């Protein structure tokens, strides 16, 4: 029986809970470790491992090797390599997507917290040891040693310098993210990015139009339902959204 991530029955949490306990352990390490490193999601990594190591002809997706020519070991390997790239491309798309409003809000809150920490750490030093002048000319009128630096103050001073660098780095990261174009609609979830990547490969390599039913949907179900842990209805719904967006693109191109 071909390996797969989970049963189509039960809740998604139950199906995903099966990942990592049995299937991953049974599979050998893929030939190219970089493929796993390019897919940080454990589910993606497991699918990549199955596509890389499962015996040719044992997966339902292997049936679709006819799309690349006559059925053969070479065409199956070529199809599987393409599907691995689909998972890697979808993973990179999600990773490179613009941060959500909540992420930006939390980062800005961290910027404010760092600014307060930097300010408060400055007060750990004695009064006469603060400022640029004290860095180069330590106070000389301190017979009682009230303004001497102890080890604790020196450590806090170094931490303050580190915090300043971190704050500047965080400022650049947030400003660069704010400068990116706003995302249209909600953030694309894992299945939608996978369908998008598969559709891009289909249009460029197979050169057939997308349809809500037919070979593309069958291939998507064989990949995302039989190997991955999605349901047929989820895949069909995601494909419908991709199809609608593709029609919008065609309409815009026709009117241009």
Order of helical and strand elements: HHHHHHHHHHH
**Uncertain runs with pLDDT below 50, 5 residues or more?**
6-30
Percent of sequence in beta strands: under 5%
Mean pLDDT across all amino acids = 80
Distance from N terminus to C terminus (CA atoms, Å) equals 51 Å
Cα radius of gyration in angstroms: 28 Å
Which range best describes the helical content: under 10%, 10-25%, 25-40%, 40-55%, 55-70% or over 70%?
55-70%
- The chain-level structural class is mainly alpha
| Total discrete domains | 2
Give the overall shape.
elongated
Number of strands: 0
Question: Biggest sheet, open or closed, and with what strands and sense?
Answer: none
Note the total helix count. Answer: 11
List the helices and strands and how they pair.
Blueprint: H1 12-17, H2 23-26, H3 33-37, H4 42-53, H5 73-96, H6 101-122, H7 131-136, H8 151-179, H9 190-206, H10 215-224, H11 232-255
Helix pairs in contact: 4-5, 5-9, 6-8, 9-11, 10-11
Brief rundown of the structure:
With 256 residues, the protein is mainly α. It contains 11 helices and no strands.
Verbal overview:
- With 256 residues, this protein is mostly helical.
- Helix content is 62%, strand content 0%.
- It has 2 domains: 12-97 and 209-255, no CATH class; 101-179.
- The chain contains 11 helices and no strands.
- The longest helix is centred in the middle third of the chain and has 29 residues, at 151-179.
């Amino acid at each position: 029986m071909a390996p797969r991530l989970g049963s189509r029955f039960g809740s998604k949490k139950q199906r995903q809970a099966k990942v990592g306990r049995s299937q991953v352990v049974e599979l050998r390490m893929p030939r190219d470790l970089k493929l796993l490193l390019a897919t940080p999601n454990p589910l993606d990594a497991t699918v990549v491992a199955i596509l890389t190591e499962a015996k040719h002809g044992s997966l339902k997706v292997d049936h679709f090797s006819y799309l690349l020519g006559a059925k053969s070991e070479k065409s199956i390997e070529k199809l599987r390599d393409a599907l691995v790239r689909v998972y890697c491309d979808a993973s990179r798309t999600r990773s490179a997507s613009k941060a959500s409003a909540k992420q930006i809000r939390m980062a800005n809150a961290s910027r404010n917290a760092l600014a307060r920490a930097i300010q408060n750490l400055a007060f750990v030093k004695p009064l006469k040891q603060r400022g640029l002048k004290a860095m180069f000319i330590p106070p000389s009128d301190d017979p009682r040693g009230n303004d001497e630096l102890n080890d604790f103050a020196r450590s806090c001073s170094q931490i303050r310098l580190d915090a300043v660098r971190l704050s500047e780095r965080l400022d650049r990261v947030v400003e660069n993210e704010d400068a990116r174009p706003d995302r249209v609609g909600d953030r694309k979830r894992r299945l939608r990015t996978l369908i998008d990547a598969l559709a891009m490969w289909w249009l460029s390599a197979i050169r057939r139009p997308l349809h809500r039913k037919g070979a593309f949907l069958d291939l998507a179900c064989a990949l995302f339902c039989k190997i991955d842990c999605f349901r047929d209805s989820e895949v069909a719904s995601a494909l419908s959204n991709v199809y609608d967006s593709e029609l919008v693109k065609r309409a815009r191109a026709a009117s241009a």
